[in-house]
Fold this sequence. Notes:
It contains 11 helices and 11 strands.
Amino acid sequence: MLLPLWEGVRRSVRFDPSPQPPPARGGGESFPAAALSARLIDGRAIANTMRQALAARVAALPFRPGLAVVLVGDDPASAVYVRSKDRAAEMAGIAVTTLRLPGTTTEAALLAEVARLNEDPGIDGILVQLPLPRGIRQEAVIDLIDPAKDVDGFHPLNAGLLAAGRPSLIPCTPLGVMKLLEAAEVALSGRRALVLGRSHIVGRPLVALLLAAHATVTVAHSRTRDLAAECRRAEVLVAATGRAEMVRADWLAPGATVIDVGINRLADGRLVGDVAFAECAAVAGAITPVPGGVGPMTIACLLENTVTAAMRRRGG
Ligand code: NDP
């Protein structure tokens, strides 16, 4: 018998969906680290389950979905991301074409490549790795991608449909966050969710998705006054600021669910999130690690978007 997609994962994640209300706090108060210990939301395991299910779906298709990944320049982090996307797509049975263009590529030349990929019937998904070198307008490139092949979900048509409550291709990272919450059985309806960050690729689409799941959503950003107090009201907190370990234990309501989108490289080489993991894990009800949390889900959702786009274009 086939198990529902998340069944195996749910069994491995214990979660108390009823966080306690935040206690009144004075300044400098220390936390009862031993009193609470968060369940780990294992993004790697959840993404693997998703990728296996996708590979089975792809194997049953009468065609091979095609993904084009475009990398311009030699940004080392982007090169690493592109390699892991390529590998994951191949493992799922998706045919990947990677275009590696020099950093000297002009905007006109890149636009011509995108136009060619738009017309290529074997390509179902187009991903242009960001950031682009200076001199190339990101918006011009995103706007040219055929919305039906926009597997990153960044095209204004797809962003607009999501904001209008009619989602089509959804940005991979926010979609991955929602799938993590679903897999961990975190109740969202009526819950107070705080999205820390308002970027077009993470924060804003996540607000739309959480609203669609009937959460009561607050979005905070660099101009928000008393960020810690805003965070303390949240039953679900998603951090996407790009500020290493900014969210501290005394910013959390005990029992809150914490999803850490951030990926920050410290001077000593360590990779950390936007959440101070060790101290927050002692207060939160459930928490994602970095690495091994949202990152693997982003890639799994890219594969899912590619298969979705392929099936819509070709039927199946
Ligand atoms: P952006 O820089 O585009 O946006 C950051 C957001 O955080 C902005 O809205 C900014 O506010 C807000 N912010 C920055 N500093 C503060 C602060 N001190 N207090 C409150 N708000 C603040 O980043 P992204 O959304 O692209 O990425 C966020 C993080 O997520 C990064 O670490 C990135 O590496 C990571 N990431 C991870 C992915 C994954 O797969 N796991 C995928 C994509 C991103 P304002 O708008 O006011 O400037």
